[in-house]
Amino acid sequence: MPVSLPATDSPFYPFPSPAKLNLFLHIVGRRTDGYHELETVFQFLTLADNIAIKPTTTSTITLLTPIDGVPNDDNLIVKAAKLLQAETQSPYGAEIKINKLLPMGGGLGGGSSNAATVLLALNVLWQCKLSYQQLAELGLQLGADVPIFIHGFAAFAQGIGEKLSPVYPDESIYLITKPQCSISTQQVFTAKALTRNTRKLDNNAFDDKTYINGYHNDCQNLVINHYPEVAKLLAWLIEYAPSRMTGTGACIFSRFDSEEEAKRVQKLLPNTMTSFVTKGINTSPLHSVLQQLESEICT
Ligand SMILES: C[C@@](CO)(OP(=O)(O)O)[C@H](O)COP(=O)(O)OP(=O)(O)OC[C@H]1O[C@@H](n2ccc(N)nc2=O)[C@H](O)[C@@H]1O
Ligand SMILES: Nc1ncnc2c1ncn2[C@@H]1O[C@H](COP(=O)(O)OP(=O)(O)O)[C@@H](O)[C@H]1O
């Protein structure tokens, strides 16, 4: 049945907020503002946080499920909602809940993904009608990875992650492992020893659809040299499957041909280690949910 929004009795609408992998991450230069120019391939994972949003007719933004260690006002969920409100002068508000499954600060892009999910969902629920391009530009203020989650297709990204061309990597099974250390993106990018002059790729005609052979992650050696637990885990995983760090770390993804094989190796990990068996996907699961919602809403 068609619904009108926002309404005083709106329900909570559920939205996935998926993780991303950087299948490779080359640093090809540095801008005058200090930000690094990257070349990377982003792919989404079926592994996702779950966000539920109830649009309200008053302007308050409330996060009902605070995340440990992140004050609500610093939470990218709240920041994204307020940014959209300010940009569109929307009179509406929202109550928001999150079931946080993605490890934070692990290079899986959870914070940027949460921000993108909130921007896209409220754009529909508040009927703001901003385009994906406008939402991506807005979201870039919150994090360099927000645009990929807004556009929702696997992509070769340049610039700081905002210049996107679609690519179609193999949708492989991955074992994701999180070493017990948290690595700040800023710390990696300010390190003197970071390689910043990888040659730009000549064209977008990629041969290896796993993006493993012939590519690398420029942050990986730096992280390995400073965090022995990452070095040890990576060395162990490589014996079982092609493995690489995502983003600025510290999560590692290992590519398998089957879920059974990935689960077999997962069982060999220490019980204390956070790990997931998940699948790479080339379209964000959020976008089909949004399309369904849009088709149900009266304008
Ligand atoms: C490197 C990437 C690759 O996907 O992944 P993560 O490992 O963080 O997920 C991202 O570009 C990260 O994006 P994000 O985590 O949103 O970074 P931001 O909050 O925008 O920036 C954090 C800090 O890192 C530095 N930074 C970030 C991105 C970039 N291309 N160059 C930089 O120098 C800046 O000093 C900035 O202040
Ligand atoms: N909703 C959110 N989810 C995750 N992290 C958030 C959120 N809001 C703010 N943050 C902050 O962003 C930092 C980076 O988180 P995240 O995006 O998960 O890592 P990464 O950039 O390594 O992929 C966290 O350590 C946290 O302080």
From TrEMBL:
<feature type="active site">
    <location>
        <position position="20"/>
    </location>
</feature>
<dbReference type="Pfam" id="PF08544">
    <property type="entry name" value="GHMP_kinases_C"/>
</dbReference>
<dbReference type="InterPro" id="IPR014721">
    <property type="entry name" value="Ribsml_uS5_D2-typ_fold_subgr"/>
</dbReference>
<feature type="active site">
    <location>
        <position position="145"/>
    </location>
</feature>
<dbReference type="InterPro" id="IPR036554">
    <property type="entry name" value="GHMP_kinase_C_sf"/>
</dbReference>
<dbReference type="GO" id="GO:0050515">
    <property type="term" value="F:4-(cytidine 5'-diphospho)-2-C-methyl-D-erythritol kinase activity"/>
</dbReference>
<comment type="similarity">
    <text>Belongs to the GHMP kinase family. IspE subfamily.</text>
</comment>
<dbReference type="InterPro" id="IPR004424">
    <property type="entry name" value="IspE"/>
</dbReference>
<dbReference type="InterPro" id="IPR006204">
    <property type="entry name" value="GHMP_kinase_N_dom"/>
</dbReference>
<keyword id="KW-0808">Transferase</keyword>
<dbReference type="Pfam" id="PF00288">
    <property type="entry name" value="GHMP_kinases_N"/>
</dbReference>
<comment type="function">
    <text>Catalyzes the phosphorylation of the position 2 hydroxy group of 4-diphosphocytidyl-2C-methyl-D-erythritol.</text>
</comment>
<keyword id="KW-0547">Nucleotide-binding</keyword>
<keyword id="KW-0067">ATP-binding</keyword>
<dbReference type="InterPro" id="IPR020568">
    <property type="entry name" value="Ribosomal_Su5_D2-typ_SF"/>
</dbReference>
<feature type="domain" description="GHMP kinase N-terminal">
    <location>
        <begin position="75"/>
        <end position="152"/>
    </location>
</feature>
<keyword id="KW-0418">Kinase</keyword>
<feature type="binding site">
    <location>
        <begin position="103"/>
        <end position="113"/>
    </location>
    <ligand>
        <name>ATP</name>
    </ligand>
</feature>
<dbReference type="InterPro" id="IPR013750">
    <property type="entry name" value="GHMP_kinase_C_dom"/>
</dbReference>
<protein>
    <recommendedName>
        <fullName>4-diphosphocytidyl-2-C-methyl-D-erythritol kinase</fullName>
        <ecNumber>2.7.1.148</ecNumber>
    </recommendedName>
</protein>
<comment type="pathway">
    <text>Isoprenoid biosynthesis; isopentenyl diphosphate biosynthesis via DXP pathway; isopentenyl diphosphate from 1-deoxy-D-xylulose 5-phosphate: step 3/6.</text>
</comment>
<feature type="domain" description="GHMP kinase C-terminal">
    <location>
        <begin position="204"/>
        <end position="267"/>
    </location>
</feature>
<keyword id="KW-0414">Isoprene biosynthesis</keyword>
